[in-house]
Amino acid sequence: MIIGFKHKGLERFFTTGSKAGIQPKHAERLRLILGRLQASTCPQDMSLPGLDLHELSGDRQDDWAVKVSGNWRVTFRFVGKDADVVDYEDYH
């Protein structure tokens, strides 16, 4: 279950469906990612074909990422069985 967001536009999209604050062309992919993240209880639950699940390193240790499109990723960490600090970022 998702318990917290870092990106306010992504949180608004998740709760209301509003595309303000996200790239509209990413909406369907984000809907799939967030739906799966909401149902997940560990990072490995996000290991679906095409999502390219990977753990981050360095000062982002304990954070995970899945691919949205191009350089865009949804990043998150798990606190127990819940996803937290869910972010939508262009990090490359």
TrEMBL record:
Organism expressing this protein natively: Desulforhabdus amnigena
InterPro entries according to UniProt: HigB-1 (IPR007711), RelE/ParE_toxin_dom_sf (IPR035093)
Source lineage: Bacteria, Pseudomonadati, Thermodesulfobacteriota, Syntrophobacteria, Syntrophobacterales
Protein's UniProt name: Peptidase
Pfam families assigned to the protein according to its UniProt record, in alphabetical order: HigB-like_toxin
Superkingdom field: Bacteria
